[in-house]
Amino acid sequence: MIQKPNKEENKVWKLLAPIVVLTCIGLVITAALAVTNQLTAPVIAAQEAAAAQAALQVVLPEGSDFQVMSDVELPEGVTEIQVAGNGAGYVVTATGRGYGGDMSVMVGLDSSGAITGTKVLSHGESQGIGTVVTDDGSAFQQQLIGMTDASGIQATSGATMSSNGMKTAIQAAFDAYTLATGGTVEATVYEAPANLTDDVLAQYYPGASFTDVAGGKVSDAGTVVYASETGMMGPVNVAVFFDADGKIIGAIADTSSETPGYGQPLGEGEFMDSFIGVSSGSEVDSVSGATITSDAIKGAVDIAIANLETVKAADAVTGGSTGGSDADKGGETAGAAEAPANLTDDVLAQYYPGASFTDVAGGKVSDAGTVVYGAAQGMMSEIKVAVLFDADDTILGVVADCSQETPGLGTLAGEEDFTSQFAGVTSADEVDSISGSTISSSAVKDAVNLAIANLQTVKEAG
Amino acid sequence: MKANNAPSKLSILTNGIIKENPVLVLVLGTCPTLATTTSVSTAIGMGIAAAIVLICSNILISLLRKIIPDSVRIPCYIVVIAGFVSVVQMLVQAYFQDLYNALGVYLPLIVVNCIILGRAEMFASKHTVGESALDGIGMGIGFTLTLLVMSTIREVLGSGTFAGISVPFFSSYNIPILTQTPGGFFVFGCLIALVARITHGKVKHAATGCGNCPNAAVCGKIGKEA
User: Fold this and answer.
1) Chain B CB contacts of A22 below 8 Å
2) N or C: which terminus of chain A carries fewer CB neighbours within 10 A?
3) Same domain for A363 and A445?
4) Which residues span the domain enclosing A111?
5) Model pTM greater than 0.90?
6) Calpha distance A260→A447 (Å, rounded)
7) A25–B64: do the CB atoms touch at under 8 Å?
């Protein structure tokens, strides 16, 4: 009877021991960590500050005593402006979108606004291609030294997307310098999206007559404000419709150059309607799988909201037209595309031996199959392609005329190594773009997709 | 504790260097070995950091071996090891900034370095504090030396430098693949083969039962035969 309580006690202790021991060890270790942190935190902070100062001196060698400017409104794309305490100039940290996402660039500017040095802090560019631009001391970055505006920057061939990202960041840095020195940056005047037609206007403002002004349209019924943000593949132009009280009654975006099936469908319909009545673009949720495009549209809507008063007060411009006709890059399928110059009878005979073709609008037809033309804007020219379908509508091959593209880079997109990959695909998205020739090869892919979409039209024309 | 069994203590210390080398014989800690041996300086930093954690955790776990209940021993070891790793990480970040940047994610990953957990389970939980400390030192030296040898081969032949200093002749004839991941495996394989050749026949007698098995820590029977 005496042993029983002892046994019970043992049982309880057996149950409790693991919990007690583990808790005690956890507490002791946590205390040890807290002490170490107390000791090392100031040292680490001092080290990091010294490292940051050293980095600043790489881009602005004569500067010292850098201070973050907190009283200056940061222009878009700029994350930080630091001023050298000794009056040597400014260091601006800015971001631009390259091929592999945002890249963060530190730009040193002397007191007269000329670039003293640049350093890419982080980037996601392709190794050996985009890094030609982002590496320290690259030819691209060396040309920047001494520049006082971004207009003379030469892109590096084969790394156009990365160069453009850098250019955006450098432009933002110049804007930051202007603001930091008390100047004002002229507000960008945005263009209308290509899909803003009179029909769309009539739908939102029945019977209203609009006057074109810089950055939008005004009428008694309301105001249309244009804005733009960089999406996945380039700028996404947006038009936001405000009623007479300044409330959003709708919006459209030109997403024709975004990724088909992901970013492209966002430009009209459900997603754009979700902006109705909001007072900030951030109230709308992004679309999964099209985050970059939806974020670009949301950002552009915010710009439009901010610019509403400016547009309302703007003077009428003469000769303005509905829709940005120059922004229309083959997104519409109405105009029939023409044949590429290198689509010869020999090529046809190779794919369709003995067949005789009849020319129709946008292609050629025969019993053996159909040839459909497509076109898209490349780097230097409009790239024309011919997609060769057999009688069962399977792609036999693609002929692309890239002769006006950059020799050795863009011209690769016209060569058989690339075009032969299209044989048998049902969408050009199945083919990878060429590294270092992203713009030209993407254009060929777009043109092929356009041709695939037009196949039935051409067949019926025949 | 100090006086008795002097020869066996010496063998505990030297076991880790060749006979029971943690990397090349026990094949533990392969991930940091392959990742940090691209240059001599990061390899030495990694070796010393891991050795410090190993020695400290071996001593503490050996001290606590009677207190820690069997059912929660692994969580206890992990907490102790993670604590030491965090301390080392903060110290390295504070006083060796360059090494901290070079080691990157592999420094906190020492927590899951199986050499340390393996020695805690295989050795420290069954031996006295003094023996465990010696085992930690021996294994630490073995790990560091292995990293040093591997990184020397990879850096000198791969990039023509030793600890960042250009080596004549080799700097003009590089084998760049040795600095890449495949090169790491090539050198690793060759070293394992070399150590197997050196210790051939000896290891089987020296190592006791399944103490030589890399999976001994998880099977839980370790030490019973020893």
Assistant:
1) 72, 75-76, 79
2) N
3) yes
4) 66-180
5) no
6) 12
7) yes
